[in-house]
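Many introductory courses stop at the sequence. We go one step further.
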Amino acid sequence: MRFKITVFLLCLLVVSMISGICPAQVPILSEASQAVTEKEVRQFINGYLTRFTGMELEPLMALFSKDAIENRVLPYGDIRAAYRKVIATSESISCKFKIYSIKTYKQSASVSGHYEAVQFFRNNEFAKIFEGDIQWILVREEGVLRIKEVNYGKNR
């Protein structure tokens, strides 16, 4: 009996020493596990506009999920090809975005609004205007927001 009590006390001593060395760890909420905020969505949209008007394909496409779709049918590869063509044929691009609503969730957000993009062509004196309603579904991937789905209205 005395041996069992000694072993028990020894175990308690070891446990208390270990807990003093390695205190219980409380999970720290990282940005990736926190709910998406409206501020974060607005910053994302500003970043998109900067990258789109900056006409650099790789930084722009980094904002898209590899699973992204456009207008419920076009996959990421087709979205990339379309942006590549627009950038290659443009002297400059301007873009405005008016937000109608932002709905945030745990790992995603839905954004609806109206856009107007003006594409100024290389070696030409004309421009093309794209405008209409737009809806984005954003998801958090690897700790950052990315476009999962984009749907354009009929004015495009």
